[in-house]
Amino acid sequence: MTKDELQTKIDGFIEEETADEKSKNTIRKYKHVATLFVNSLPDGEIQKSDIVGVKDKLLHDYKISTVNNYIVIINKFIKYAEIIDSDDDFNFLKLKKYYSKNLLKNVRVQKDDSLDDILEPNEFQRLLKKAREINRMDLYEIMKVFGYTGIRLSELQFFTVEAVTDDNVYVMNKGKGRGIILRSDLRRELLKYCKDNKIEEGCIFTSSDKKSPVNARVLSRDLKMIAGKCRGIKLGKVHPHAFRHLFAIQYLMQNGENAIAELADILGHSSLETTRIYVRTTRKMKKQNLESLSYAKRK
Protein backbone atom coordinates (compact mmCIF):
# COMPACT_ATOMS: atom_id res chain seq x y z
CA MET A 1 0.00 0.00 0.00
CA THR A 2 1.26 3.47 -0.86
CA LYS A 3 1.22 6.67 1.15
CA ASP A 4 -1.37 8.17 -1.22
CA GLU A 5 -3.64 5.15 -0.78
CA LEU A 6 -3.42 5.45 2.99
CA GLN A 7 -4.24 9.16 2.72
CA THR A 8 -7.52 8.37 0.95
CA LYS A 9 -8.58 6.02 3.76
CA ILE A 10 -8.41 8.52 6.63
CA ASP A 11 -11.91 9.92 6.06
CA GLY A 12 -13.45 6.44 5.92
CA PHE A 13 -11.64 5.48 9.13
CA ILE A 14 -13.01 8.57 10.88
CA GLU A 15 -16.53 7.91 9.56
CA GLU A 16 -16.48 4.39 11.00
CA GLU A 17 -15.26 5.63 14.39
CA THR A 18 -17.91 8.36 14.38
CA ALA A 19 -20.60 5.79 13.58
CA ASP A 20 -19.31 3.79 16.55
CA GLU A 21 -20.37 6.79 18.70
CA LYS A 22 -16.93 7.89 19.77
CA SER A 23 -16.92 11.28 21.51
CA LYS A 24 -16.05 14.44 19.57
CA ASN A 25 -12.74 14.77 21.41
CA THR A 26 -11.86 11.15 20.59
CA ILE A 27 -12.73 11.62 16.92
CA ARG A 28 -10.63 14.79 16.81
CA LYS A 29 -7.70 12.90 18.31
CA TYR A 30 -8.10 9.92 15.95
CA LYS A 31 -8.07 12.21 12.93
CA HIS A 32 -5.02 14.10 14.22
CA VAL A 33 -3.03 10.91 14.85
CA ALA A 34 -4.01 9.20 11.58
CA THR A 35 -3.08 12.34 9.63
CA LEU A 36 0.18 12.75 11.55
CA PHE A 37 1.04 9.10 10.84
CA VAL A 38 0.42 9.30 7.09
CA ASN A 39 2.18 12.66 6.70
CA SER A 40 5.24 11.23 8.46
CA LEU A 41 5.57 8.37 5.95
CA PRO A 42 7.83 8.59 2.87
CA ASP A 43 6.25 8.76 -0.58
CA GLY A 44 5.62 5.57 -2.54
CA GLU A 45 5.08 1.99 -1.37
CA ILE A 46 5.11 1.66 2.40
CA GLN A 47 7.29 -0.94 4.13
CA LYS A 48 7.27 -2.03 7.77
CA SER A 49 10.56 -0.20 8.25
CA ASP A 50 8.82 3.04 7.21
CA ILE A 51 6.15 2.51 9.86
CA VAL A 52 8.79 1.82 12.50
CA GLY A 53 10.50 5.01 11.36
CA VAL A 54 7.35 6.97 12.24
CA LYS A 55 7.47 5.45 15.72
CA ASP A 56 11.08 6.62 16.09
CA LYS A 57 10.05 10.15 15.06
CA LEU A 58 7.23 10.14 17.61
CA LEU A 59 9.63 9.04 20.36
CA HIS A 60 11.84 11.99 19.48
CA ASP A 61 8.98 14.49 19.70
CA TYR A 62 6.65 13.14 22.41
CA LYS A 63 6.63 11.50 25.82
CA ILE A 64 6.54 7.69 25.89
CA SER A 65 3.03 7.66 27.35
CA THR A 66 1.82 9.82 24.45
CA VAL A 67 3.60 7.65 21.89
CA ASN A 68 1.99 4.50 23.28
CA ASN A 69 -1.39 6.20 23.10
CA TYR A 70 -0.75 7.17 19.48
CA ILE A 71 0.42 3.64 18.61
CA VAL A 72 -2.98 2.24 19.64
CA ILE A 73 -4.69 4.57 17.17
CA ILE A 74 -2.11 3.99 14.42
CA ASN A 75 -2.48 0.22 14.71
CA LYS A 76 -6.25 0.56 14.51
CA PHE A 77 -5.92 2.69 11.37
CA ILE A 78 -3.46 0.24 9.76
CA LYS A 79 -5.85 -2.67 10.35
CA TYR A 80 -8.77 -0.66 8.98
CA ALA A 81 -6.82 0.30 5.85
CA GLU A 82 -5.74 -3.30 5.16
CA ILE A 83 -9.25 -4.69 5.70
CA ILE A 84 -10.77 -2.12 3.34
CA ASP A 85 -8.01 -2.70 0.81
CA SER A 86 -8.62 -6.46 0.76
CA ASP A 87 -12.42 -6.86 0.67
CA ASP A 88 -14.08 -3.48 1.32
CA ASP A 89 -16.18 -5.10 4.04
CA PHE A 90 -15.49 -3.51 7.41
CA ASN A 91 -16.88 -4.14 10.87
CA PHE A 92 -15.39 -3.73 14.34
CA LEU A 93 -15.51 -7.44 15.13
CA LYS A 94 -13.33 -8.09 12.09
CA LEU A 95 -11.04 -5.24 13.16
CA LYS A 96 -10.62 -6.76 16.62
CA LYS A 97 -9.65 -10.19 15.26
CA TYR A 98 -7.56 -8.98 12.33
CA TYR A 99 -3.80 -9.48 12.48
CA SER A 100 -1.27 -7.44 10.53
CA LYS A 101 2.49 -7.81 10.38
CA ASN A 102 2.68 -4.03 10.08
CA LEU A 103 1.45 -3.28 13.57
CA LEU A 104 3.69 -1.42 15.98
CA LYS A 105 4.63 -2.61 19.45
CA ASN A 106 4.14 -0.36 22.44
CA VAL A 107 7.22 1.09 24.06
CA ARG A 108 7.93 -0.88 27.22
CA VAL A 109 8.71 1.09 30.34
CA GLN A 110 9.34 -0.05 33.87
CA LYS A 111 6.19 0.50 35.86
CA ASP A 112 6.49 2.95 38.73
CA ASP A 113 3.86 2.41 41.38
CA SER A 114 4.39 5.88 42.77
CA LEU A 115 3.03 9.12 41.43
CA ASP A 116 4.89 12.40 41.58
CA ASP A 117 3.36 15.82 42.02
CA ILE A 118 -0.23 15.04 42.89
CA LEU A 119 -2.37 17.37 44.94
CA GLU A 120 -2.46 16.87 48.67
CA PRO A 121 -5.42 17.68 50.96
CA ASN A 122 -3.78 20.74 52.53
CA GLU A 123 -3.01 22.13 49.07
CA PHE A 124 -6.63 21.58 48.04
CA GLN A 125 -7.77 23.59 51.06
CA ARG A 126 -5.30 26.37 50.27
CA LEU A 127 -6.52 26.58 46.67
CA LEU A 128 -10.11 26.88 47.86
CA LYS A 129 -9.18 29.56 50.38
CA LYS A 130 -7.27 31.60 47.78
CA ALA A 131 -10.13 31.37 45.26
CA ARG A 132 -12.48 32.81 47.88
CA GLU A 133 -10.00 35.55 48.81
CA ILE A 134 -9.79 36.85 45.24
CA ASN A 135 -13.54 36.39 44.72
CA ARG A 136 -13.25 33.71 42.04
CA MET A 137 -16.26 31.82 43.33
CA ASP A 138 -16.70 30.06 40.00
CA LEU A 139 -13.29 28.40 40.42
CA TYR A 140 -14.02 27.78 44.10
CA GLU A 141 -17.21 25.88 43.29
CA ILE A 142 -15.66 24.00 40.35
CA MET A 143 -12.78 22.79 42.54
CA LYS A 144 -15.25 21.70 45.22
CA VAL A 145 -17.27 19.76 42.64
CA PHE A 146 -14.10 18.06 41.38
CA GLY A 147 -12.79 17.41 44.89
CA TYR A 148 -16.00 16.01 46.34
CA THR A 149 -17.35 14.01 43.39
CA GLY A 150 -14.27 12.87 41.43
CA ILE A 151 -15.88 13.74 38.09
CA ARG A 152 -13.97 14.37 34.87
CA LEU A 153 -13.83 17.86 33.39
CA SER A 154 -15.96 16.73 30.43
CA GLU A 155 -18.69 15.72 32.91
CA LEU A 156 -18.94 19.18 34.47
CA GLN A 157 -21.36 20.24 31.71
CA PHE A 158 -24.00 17.91 33.19
CA PHE A 159 -24.12 19.96 36.37
CA THR A 160 -27.15 22.00 35.41
CA VAL A 161 -29.46 24.06 37.60
CA GLU A 162 -32.22 21.55 36.93
CA ALA A 163 -30.10 18.49 37.76
CA VAL A 164 -28.72 19.94 41.01
CA THR A 165 -32.16 21.21 42.05
CA ASP A 166 -33.63 17.72 41.55
CA ASP A 167 -30.55 16.14 43.14
CA ASN A 168 -30.28 14.02 40.01
CA VAL A 169 -26.98 14.70 38.21
CA TYR A 170 -26.55 12.09 35.48
CA VAL A 171 -23.41 12.23 33.34
CA MET A 172 -22.48 10.60 30.05
CA ASN A 173 -18.89 9.79 29.14
CA LYS A 174 -17.36 7.41 26.58
CA GLY A 175 -20.78 5.98 25.78
CA LYS A 176 -21.55 5.17 29.42
CA GLY A 177 -23.79 6.95 31.87
CA ARG A 178 -23.87 7.09 35.66
CA GLY A 179 -25.53 9.05 38.41
CA ILE A 180 -23.42 11.40 40.55
CA ILE A 181 -24.07 11.41 44.28
CA LEU A 182 -23.95 14.93 45.67
CA ARG A 183 -23.17 15.70 49.29
CA SER A 184 -25.99 17.71 50.84
CA ASP A 185 -23.71 20.61 51.78
CA LEU A 186 -22.24 20.74 48.26
CA ARG A 187 -25.72 20.72 46.71
CA ARG A 188 -26.86 23.58 48.93
CA GLU A 189 -23.71 25.52 48.09
CA LEU A 190 -24.22 25.07 44.35
CA LEU A 191 -27.85 26.20 44.57
CA LYS A 192 -26.79 29.30 46.53
CA TYR A 193 -24.11 30.01 43.91
CA CYS A 194 -26.79 29.81 41.19
CA LYS A 195 -29.08 32.16 43.13
CA ASP A 196 -26.31 34.68 43.87
CA ASN A 197 -25.24 34.72 40.21
CA LYS A 198 -28.79 34.68 38.78
CA ILE A 199 -28.23 31.37 36.98
CA GLU A 200 -31.78 30.11 36.50
CA GLU A 201 -31.36 27.26 34.01
CA GLY A 202 -28.88 25.21 32.04
CA CYS A 203 -25.19 24.63 32.77
CA ILE A 204 -23.99 26.14 36.02
CA PHE A 205 -20.41 26.54 34.80
CA THR A 206 -19.87 27.90 31.28
CA SER A 207 -17.32 29.64 29.10
CA SER A 208 -17.29 33.41 28.66
CA ASP A 209 -20.20 33.21 26.19
CA LYS A 210 -22.41 31.90 29.03
CA LYS A 211 -23.55 29.04 26.77
CA SER A 212 -20.68 26.66 25.95
CA PRO A 213 -19.23 24.21 28.51
CA VAL A 214 -16.11 25.32 30.36
CA ASN A 215 -13.08 25.40 28.09
CA ALA A 216 -10.41 22.95 29.32
CA ARG A 217 -7.45 25.16 28.37
CA VAL A 218 -8.93 28.26 29.99
CA LEU A 219 -9.86 26.39 33.18
CA SER A 220 -6.37 24.89 33.47
CA ARG A 221 -4.87 28.36 33.04
CA ASP A 222 -7.16 29.82 35.71
CA LEU A 223 -6.43 27.02 38.17
CA LYS A 224 -2.70 27.58 37.72
CA MET A 225 -3.30 31.27 38.31
CA ILE A 226 -4.84 30.40 41.69
CA ALA A 227 -1.94 28.03 42.44
CA GLY A 228 0.55 30.75 41.55
CA LYS A 229 -0.88 32.87 44.33
CA CYS A 230 -0.37 30.04 46.84
CA ARG A 231 3.28 29.90 47.82
CA GLY A 232 4.80 26.42 47.59
CA ILE A 233 2.25 24.72 45.33
CA LYS A 234 3.83 23.52 42.08
CA LEU A 235 1.90 24.75 39.06
CA GLY A 236 2.42 21.45 37.24
CA LYS A 237 0.31 19.53 39.73
CA VAL A 238 -2.72 21.81 39.44
CA HIS A 239 -5.05 20.86 36.59
CA PRO A 240 -8.67 19.59 36.39
CA HIS A 241 -7.78 15.88 36.43
CA ALA A 242 -5.57 16.29 39.51
CA PHE A 243 -8.66 16.64 41.69
CA ARG A 244 -9.90 13.25 40.46
CA HIS A 245 -6.69 11.61 41.72
CA LEU A 246 -7.00 13.46 45.01
CA PHE A 247 -10.61 12.36 45.43
CA ALA A 248 -9.76 8.69 44.72
CA ILE A 249 -6.84 8.63 47.15
CA GLN A 250 -8.80 10.33 49.92
CA TYR A 251 -11.82 8.08 49.42
CA LEU A 252 -9.76 4.93 49.92
CA MET A 253 -7.70 6.39 52.76
CA GLN A 254 -10.89 7.16 54.66
CA ASN A 255 -12.90 4.09 53.67
CA GLY A 256 -10.23 1.40 53.28
CA GLU A 257 -9.04 -0.79 50.40
CA ASN A 258 -12.27 -2.79 50.56
CA ALA A 259 -14.07 0.24 49.13
CA ILE A 260 -12.22 0.09 45.79
CA ALA A 261 -15.18 -1.52 43.97
CA GLU A 262 -17.43 1.21 45.33
CA LEU A 263 -14.90 3.82 44.22
CA ALA A 264 -14.81 2.30 40.72
CA ASP A 265 -18.59 2.79 40.48
CA ILE A 266 -18.31 6.39 41.65
CA LEU A 267 -15.54 7.17 39.13
CA GLY A 268 -17.33 5.36 36.31
CA HIS A 269 -14.70 2.67 35.74
CA SER A 270 -15.65 -0.73 34.34
CA SER A 271 -12.34 -2.21 35.48
CA LEU A 272 -10.81 -2.17 38.95
CA GLU A 273 -7.38 -2.04 37.34
CA THR A 274 -8.23 1.39 35.95
CA THR A 275 -9.23 2.53 39.43
CA ARG A 276 -5.96 1.28 40.92
CA ILE A 277 -4.07 3.64 38.61
CA TYR A 278 -5.82 6.57 40.26
CA VAL A 279 -4.97 5.53 43.79
CA ARG A 280 -1.22 5.14 43.51
CA THR A 281 0.39 7.40 46.07
CA THR A 282 3.44 9.63 45.90
CA ARG A 283 6.82 8.60 47.27
CA LYS A 284 6.32 11.25 49.95
CA MET A 285 3.09 9.56 51.07
CA LYS A 286 4.76 6.17 51.08
CA LYS A 287 7.60 7.56 53.18
CA GLN A 288 5.13 9.01 55.69
CA ASN A 289 3.43 5.63 55.99
CA LEU A 290 6.78 3.88 56.46
CA GLU A 291 7.82 6.39 59.13
CA SER A 292 4.74 5.47 61.14
CA LEU A 293 5.38 1.71 60.81
CA SER A 294 6.14 0.15 64.19
CA TYR A 295 6.81 -3.33 65.58
CA ALA A 296 6.34 -2.26 69.16
CA LYS A 297 3.60 -3.95 71.08
CA ARG A 298 0.49 -1.90 71.47
CA LYS A 299 -0.58 -1.26 75.00
TrEMBL record:
Alphabetized Pfam families for the sequence: Phage_integrase
CDD domains: DNA_BRE_C
PROSITE patterns in alphabetical order: CB, TYR_RECOMBINASE
GO BP term (any one): DNA recombination
UniProt keyword terms in alphabetical order: DNA recombination, DNA-binding
Domain of life the protein comes from: Bacteria
Keyword DNA-binding tagged: yes
Annotated ranges, domain Tyr recombinase: 114-291
Domain Core-binding (CB): 4-82
The UniProt record lists the keyword DNA-binding: yes
InterPro entries documented for this protein: CB (IPR044068), DNA_brk_join_enz (IPR011010), Integrase-like_cat_sf (IPR013762), Integrase_catalytic (IPR002104), Integrase_recombinase_N (IPR010998), Tyrosine_recombinase_XerCD (IPR050090)
Molecular function as annotated in GO: DNA binding
Name of protein: Site-specific integrase
Annotated organism of origin: Holdemanella biformis
